[in-house]
Amino acid sequence: MLRRLLDKLEFTKGLGFRLGGLLSVAILPIGLISVIQTLHLSREYQRSSEIALLGRTATAAAGERALLQSALGTADALGPAVLETMDRPQACSDIMRGLVQRTVNFVYAGFTRLDGVTECSSVRGVHDLSGESAFRQFSESPGTLVTTSADGPVTGKAVVVVIQPLYRGVELLGFIAVSMSHDLLRSTHVSGLGTEGARILTFNNQGEVISSDREGAGDITEVLPRGKSLPSLLSRSETTFRDISNSGERRVFSVVPVVPGLVYALGSWNRAESGITGIDITRRTALILPLILWAASLAVAYFAVYRLVLRHIRELRSQMRRFAIGDRSAPPPVLADAPAEIEDMSQTFHNMARILIRDEEAMEAAVNEKTVLMKEVHHRVKNNLQLIASIINMQIRVIEHDDARRVLRSVQDRVASLATIYRNLYQAEHLDSVQADRLIRDIINQMTNASVGPGAGLRINTRLEPLVLMPDQAVPLSLLATEAFTNALKYSGVSDPDAEPWVRVSLRADGPGHAVLEVENSIGASSLAEGTGLGSQLIEAFATQLEGEAEQEMGEGRFLLRLRFQVENLHKREGAEMPQVVLTSAARPGSRH
Transmembrane region positions (predicted)? Predict the structure, then answer.
């Protein structure tokens, strides 16, 4: 009995039970809302169809609107030029002709006086336009005018004429006319945007047809509203209405302004093209639509399960991200208010995180202990090397032979250099990397203090750029620098008695994955003594260990040792074998360092 009760309680927390309850609550209001919305759907659909017809008509005439507005602007812009050149017909004609030649939209441009004579135009000669319809319309009502001519009096082509009056102060001088071809305006009518099968035409405020959407496709008057003139349609601008066309077909008409007050566009649509048929279908399916909406509400309500799942999944994902980027202060909390399946997942992640935190703490403690031990080893090695250097120093003090003292001093310098290396290792924050520039600087300072007296007059210059190396590279590099610097100190000199000897040490990066160490010193006549060759052997051995090659240059009172070597990636796999040090059996002939 208790088991059944527990199973039942567990079932009530399951995703299926919660989903069923959510659906039962969501479906009822959605069904009621769908019935109410169906009552208003047909009216809203009809209103949107009318607005769409106006937009489609305006879109179809958008190109013509741009051309007409461009022509009106051009006529306005020609006014000042005509006023300046009115007394010089040839100069005025050149302006008009240049405009037509530069602009492909216009076939004619000219200025006509009030007597109908045109001396300034893009067509050569003097023209009398007093008998033309456009001139008569302007004479009866002076003002901006857009009209059409089937046979242009000047060009001889079917054109659309845009007229702008020209004033000097308050005195009317005539008008400027700009003509465009009918074919150009017809080509601008946009097709393929819901205007297939429809008829679009434009007319002026006098009821004169300016252009239509196509030529030779039947009489345009057949699709116009019966018994209504085009000027009578101006009162219905920016509206749609239904009427019977001259062909007896029930059509839907839309009127929009192209150039307000001058040109208008009329769209004539049958019921299928206008979308009115969809309203009738909507009304016939008013009883079916609530059932469709009811089914749709079931689908919508089903997706509401994401409200139960997605919120908890996102929280669980955030916990995983925080844990992955290092937030290990405490195990993530269990999502107690989530469905049973997600709660079980959260509990599993909590247990896993707790185990990982425990294991990482143990590993960190082991790493810290290993680091402490390694630093202690380096510290003790450093102490032992310093002890050896001190013993050698004591031995130097009691030896009177100069050669023996010099040999022991060389050994002491090498041991001290090793001690400096291990001191930098145990003082470094990370045991897997060494600041090579700092290490070499310490070695140079130590050797300078020990070998160069206050009055020696030796100048030592260093230019050490920051460079991080692995310990297995830092050790041979520092030893090589020790040998090279020791030899530089030993053989530095000058030929000029008034000059001071000098030593320069530089360390710099040389492209990706390489670095260069240079040790340079001045030389004089006393610097040409032969050496034992041990320094050259050690330098060659350490260069081999660094996988580089030491180059020597001598001339113009100086000696230069250059070593270019590869800088190993600090993220290389551990366990790579260090190249073995191979000492040559004898110094190279003629070697001095």
Answer: 20-39, 287-310
Q: Is 264 helix (H, G, I), strand (E, B) or coil?
A: strand
Which of 228, 193, 227, 198 lies closest to 212 in space, CA to CA?
A: 198
Four-CA torsion 53, 54, 57, 61, nearest 10 degrees? -160
Q: Measuring CA to CA, which residue among 272, 264, 251, 331 is closest to residue 58? A: 264
Closest CA to 520 of 478, 462, 456: 462
d(CA 360, CA 353): 10
198-211 average pLDDT score: 84
DSSP strand pairing (459-464 vs 502-509): parallel
Between CA 235 and CA 255 the distance in angstroms is 9
Backbone angles phi, psi at 357, to 5 degrees: -60, -40
Specify the higher pLDDT residue, 98 or 273: 98
- Which is nearest to 259 in space by CA: 146, 109, 161? 146
Give 320-376 pLDDT, tens digit per residue.
Answer: 888 888 777 788 888 887 878 888 888 898 898 888 888 888 888 887 787 777 777
pLDDT at 573: 37
* Residue 276 CB coordination number (10 Å): 21
Q: Which residues pair with 198 in a beta bridge?
A: none
State how beta strands 120-121 and 459-464 pair.
unpaired
Secondary structure letter of residue 188 according to DSSP: T
**pTM for this entry:** 0.43
Q: What is the pLDDT of residues 119-159, one digit of tens each?
A: 898 888 888 888 888 888 888 888 889 988 877 777 677 88
- Mean pLDDT confidence for 418-441: 75
Of 300, 365, 289, 361, whose CA–CA distance to 331 is shortest? Answer: 361
Count Cβ atoms below 10 Å from residue 98 Cβ, excluding itself: 12
Are 294 and 31 contacting, i.e. CB atoms less than 8 angstroms apart?
A: yes
Task: Give the whole-angstrom CA distance, residue 69 versus residue 134.
Answer: 19
The β-bridge partners of 267 are 200, 254
Q: What is the average pLDDT across 455-480?
A: 84
User: Tokens 């924050």 belong to which residue?
Assistant: 429
Distance CA 560, CA 229 (A): 105
Helix, strand or coil for residue 9? helix
Residue 80 DSSP class: H
Residue pLDDT, tens place only, 274-301: 666 666 666 566 557 666 766 666 666 6
CB 370 within 8 A of CB 344: no
For residues 196, 197, 198, 201, the Cα torsion angle rounded to the nearest 10 degrees is 90
Q: Tens digits of per-residue pLDDT, 397-415? A: 888 888 888 788 778 777 8
| DSSP helix, strand, coil percent of the chain (3-state; round to 5) | 50, 20, 30
Single out the residue of 138, 133, 128, 131 nearest to residue 75, CA to CA.
138
CB count in 10 Å sphere of residue 416: 22
Q: Mean pLDDT for the chain? A: 78
Mean pLDDT, rounded, for 511-525: 86
Q: Is 87 exposed, middle or buried (0-12, 13-18, 19+ CB in 10 A)?
A: exposed
- Residue 372, phi-psi category: left (phi > 0), alpha (psi -120 to 50), beta (remainder): alpha
